[in-house]
């Protein structure tokens, strides 16, 4: 199954379409996830192993994990993937720096701003794709307030991850257990 790319985003199966674009409006990612619930950190969704993800013109299968969308004014969203022992895939905490997401019951949309922050297992936290961000901020014409907010957000997320502050304190494991128990 591929993500619904038609104009209607109404879903009756409890799943939510997650759609991101780049600053110029070009497609970035498009996929479906199962709604799990909300807590003080935001809205939690689950993507199963093999969930189709449309990335530009390419279709690939995601590694199962949790997607967190913090409250509407946040300039980031996170992805948490547990360690996979048989494949030696490390545990991953990955944060996309984005514009604040627009939340609907069946659709979440945002603009990906290229910067990412990641920790694999218990290794050092890294800010990724600074070169891509620097190139695209000029090429795509990011306004200076957007550039400043993206850089501030990446630094704040890096500090939160290094300090193991919520939601980077392992709270995602509770949601992972709930996802494994859910029928979707």
TrEMBL record:
Gene3D superfamilies, per database record: FomD-like
Instruction: Give the InterPro entries listed for this entry.
Output: DUF402, FomD-like_sf, Ntdp-like
Which positions fall inside the DUF402 domain?
58-162
Positions of the UniProt region annotated as Disordered: 1-35
Where are the compositionally biased (Basic and acidic residues) regions? 8-35
Top-level taxon of the source organism: Bacteria
Q: Which UniProt keywords apply?
A: Hydrolase
**SUPFAM superfamilies registered for this protein in UniProt:** FomD-like
What GO terms are given for molecular function? hydrolase activity
| Entries under Pfam families matching the protein | DUF402
Return the protein name.
DUF402 domain-containing protein
Species annotation: Nakamurella sp. A5-74
């Amino acid at each position: 199954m591929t993500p619904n790319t038609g104009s209607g985003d109404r879903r009756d199966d409890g799943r939510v379409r997650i759609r991101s674009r780049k600053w110029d409006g070009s497609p970035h990612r498009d996929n479906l996830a199962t709604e799990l619930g909300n807590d003080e950190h935001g809205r939690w969704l689950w993507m199963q192993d093999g969930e189709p993800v449309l990335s530009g013109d390419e279709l690939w299968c995601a590694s199962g994990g949790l997607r967190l969308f913090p409250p509407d004014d946040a300039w980031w969203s996170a992805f948490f993937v547990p360690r996979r022992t048989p494949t030696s895939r490390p545990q991953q905490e990955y944060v996309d720096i984005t514009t604040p997401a627009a939340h609907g019951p069946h659709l979440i949309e945002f603009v990906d701003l290229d910067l990412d922050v990641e920790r694999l297992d218990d290794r050092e936290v890294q800010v990724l794709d600074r070169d891509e961000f620097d190139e695209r901020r000029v090429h795509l014409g990011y306004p200076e307030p957007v550039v400043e907010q993206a850089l501030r957000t990446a630094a704040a997320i890096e500090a939160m991850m290094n300090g193991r502050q919520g939601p980077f304190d392992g709270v995602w494991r509770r949601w992972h257990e709930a996802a494994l128990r859910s029928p979707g």
